[in-house]
Design brief:
This protein has 3 helices and 29 strands. It is mainly beta. GO terms for molecular function: acyltransferase activity; peptidoglycan L,D-transpeptidase activity.
């Protein structure tokens, strides 16, 4: 089925913003040289270059310091207004909190302080571009604000067209995630560059606040495109819920906080339309929806279903199927979905959250990367290799002090979902 047709999701449309530019200028004050006791004054260089023009509105204030550290950054516009921003964790640049204005002139003043207290100030003045002949690239942030998500919820950004390899590092540098309490992770790209995921080595802790900024507006991407928007969202992580579906037993095991709370008979995809095996994430929930498979292989039907929870872009759902209750627990008769009774489906809707992990095992076909939010369908080591930027070597899964429950795991094709199911 065509996984490039989109279905409405809890999604936030996002955009793009340019990165740090080359070139630098520095003004040292006082002059560099040996201070009493032999301590040299710090040196600082700043980007964008002084008097640079047509600077992207996504520009950051790049800082390079020797013999000291950056102690303050002040950026003002041509009307004397101070621009709000904050430094990157690695100190390589200072990031404005919003895209800069087009066709405006800005002055950055960076103060560096040495160990002996000596200071040096670097300054640069630059002008942003008024417009661009490049086409805006479409991006979508699948992490809505003011929601409560499951502990396996990845931050997902999708792109149309896909991001070429040469541009992925620049794009990734403009994607920010903060967690409270801190739980660091990394981004990982799908091989084709159409989607990138962010997660930590282990599941989010319940109660964590996750704040995301996709700061892509105006960012040059490849030769033809710029990013389309700058978006932010903040949401909470809820209780830990995981569903395990075993084709051998035709049973779904429902776990909450690691404890088995219910087993539910299921009917999975028949051999001609098998369900996928792998680690998936609940992507959306519908009390009522319609599956329209006209034009799909082995499809051709239209059916209204209740209590449906999407697992893949290709149209695999968990949903109420009163017509197959006699087969549930015994025989696979669906078109790829996990059929459950109406009573069980209604109960599940009150227990699960978007972002909960669903593990299916023992079916005829494996889950394809990118067919859904597949960030957990790989080891942490393999996931980290998908980052376009270096991953801190100390970032690894926490050691487990007890055997994981069956739903636990240790540890970015532009989604175009099919509305089919079965």
């Amino acid at each position: 089925m065509d996984v490039r047709r989109r279905l409405t999701l809890l999604a936030v449309t996002i955009a793009a913003t340019p990165l740090v530019l080359g070139g630098c200028t520095a003004e040292r004050k006082p002059a560099a040289g040996a201070a009493p006791g032999g301590t040299a004054a710090p040196t600082v260089s700043v980007t964008p270059a002084d008097r640079a023009k047509d600077v992207p509105v996504s520009a950051e204030v790049g800082t390079t310091v020797n013999n000291g550290r950056v102690t303050s950054v002040k950026l003002t516009d041509d009307r004397g207004k101070t621009v709000v921003g904050e430094p990157r964790e690695d100190g390589s640049s200072w990031v404005p909190a919003a895209p800069l204005g087009g066709g405006r002139t800005y002055t950055a003043e960076v103060t560096a302080t040495g160990d002996a207290g000596r200071t040096t100030v670097g300054r640069t003045t630059f002008t942003t571009a008024t417009n661009t002949t490049r086409q805006a690239l479409t991006s979508v942030l699948y992490f809505a604000g003011n929601q409560t998500y499951g502990t396996a919820m990845p931050v997902t950004v999708a792109f149309e067209p896909a991001i070429p390899k040469a541009a992925r590092a620049a794009v990734q540098r403009r994607l920010f995630v903060k967690t409270d309490p801190p739980q660091p992770g990394t981004w990982s790209w799908l091989e084709d560059g159409s989607q990138v995921y962010y997660r930590a080595p282990d599941f989010w802790r319940s109660g964590t606040t996750v704040s995301v900024r996709s700061a892509l507006e105006g960012l040059p991407i490849g030769k033809e495109y710029v990013g389309d928007a700058d978006r932010r969202s903040t949401s909470k992580i809820g209780r830990q819920v995981a569903l395990d579906i075993d084709n051998a037993t035709k049973q779904m095991s429902v776990f909450q906080d690691g404890k088995l709370v219910r087993r539910i008979p299921v009917s999975l995809g028949k051999p001609s339309t098998p369900s996928s095996s792998g680690k998936m994430v609940i992507m959306e929930k519908h009390q009522q929806t319609r599956f329209d498979t006209r034009g799909e292989p082995d499809g051709g039907y239209v059916v209204d279903v209740e209590d449906a929870q999407r697992l893949t872009w290709g149209g695999e759902f968990i949903h109420a199927a009163p017509w197959s209750e006699g087969d549930q627990g015994y025989t696979n008769v669906s078109h790829g979905c996990a059929n459950v009774s109406s009573t069980a489906a209604d109960w599940l809707m009150g227990v699960t959250q978007v972002g909960d992990l669903v593990t299916v095992k023992g079916t005829e076909v494996p889950l394809r990367p990118g067919n859904g939010w597949t960030a957990w369908n790989t080891s942490w080591a393999e996931f980290a290799r998908g980052s376009a930027l270096p991953v801190p070597p100390g970032l690894k899964p926490a050691p487990s002090t007890s055997p994981p429950h069956p739903g636990a795991v240790a540890g970015g094709s532009s989604p175009a979902p099919s509305a089919s199911g079965g």
